[in-house]
Amino acid sequence: MTQIGDKALAGLKVVELGQLIAGPFAGKFFAEFGAEVIKIEPPPGEGSAGGDPLRSWRKLHQGTSLWWYVQNRGKKSVTADLRSEEGRDVVRRLALEADVVIENFRSGTLEKWGLDHATLVKDNPRLIMLRLSGFGQTGPMKDMAGFGIVGESMGGLRYITGFPDRPPVRPNLSIGDGLAALHGVIGVMMALQHRARTGKGQVVDVALYEAVFNMMESMLPEYDMYGTIRERTGTTLTGIVPSNTYPTADGTHVVIGGNGDSIFKRLMSAIGRADMANDPALADNAGRALQVDAIDGAISAWTSTQPAVEVLRVMTEAQVPSGKIYTAADIVNDPQYLARDMLRTITLPDGTPLKVPGIVPRLSESPGDIGEPGPALGAHTDEVLRGIGITDEQIARMRESGVI
Q1: What is the set of active-site residues?
Q2: How do residues 144-187 score in pLDDT, each as one tens digit?
Q3: What separation in angstroms does the CA of 44 have from each of 269, 378, 393?
Q4: Does the structure show a pLDDT above 60 at 4?
Q5: Which CATH number fits domain 4-214+339-400: 2.40.50.140, 3.20.20.70, 3.40.50.300, 3.40.50.10540?
């Protein structure tokens, strides 16, 4: 087991504000690699159980989301009502010693509360603030609410996802929030490097729509030069041939990526289509893109006569990238996942074992670890507040008044 001092971010102190997906997902990475991540959550109040709403999303176990135990593992939970001056003062005192503050409120919220970077940096010039929002901290849309679904749409992802004769679809997960969080983590890492040279903190401003837009490959220059709007193509990848999903004889599907020139020759030879393998017109991707229907038709005609296991065996022997389309049931039994320690088992507070994802990325010298499961609401409030000089008497009074 990795010791805390061995982790890459040991000694880093992070205060996590905000809730749900983008901000907490970013905070998860810092916790996994050794940072002390203090998550600020609203306390219980009238008609409210308090805490990050993610605690009650999707599948629950004894009232707590299974997602919670992954998204917030390794963090400390502190309750503080940021609508109160005393609650905001808790954040200010934590920010005095923090390296990073993460927030994903609507633009302008922290300014209203006096918790923005321009205010906090006066007392802590080394402070880095990661700001995750729908549209960023500037521009005409900065004050608008923007969830991941809007970022995915405005960033261009939704339009190109699905089949051409049907409305755009969404992947069944919050990909826009995840992409924004990953961009935020990268930005903080760069800001920490800059601070190591200059001693100065800064703001990392990530808009969800921009994080999605950054993944859109050549969509913009293709439109600018040729007026081409990339459209939905179902299971294919525009202009990259062959790369598709193919039916098998046992009613399942496999993916095959034979778009490299030499890979294409091996693929077509392996399925008995030497004519295509050796056709000069198909020797490069530009030629194959002109005959995508014929190529995909030939591959489908072969895969549909074979069970999936045989298709994958032939592709593996021919060194052609291919794979089954995995469900969660496939993942938990897969030897590659197991060999890479990507399926960990934690113990929930009631003693129930639970499989959770392992750590990504893998570092050879300072690997991360999952730490404790997502904490109970306010589990670390007293410990953390004592650490910033608040007395037990003050803590008791703050709890009685609903501040924590």
Answers
A1: 177
A2: 999 999 999 999 999 999 999 999 999 999 999 999 999 999 99
A3: 66, 10, 20
A4: no
A5: 3.40.50.10540
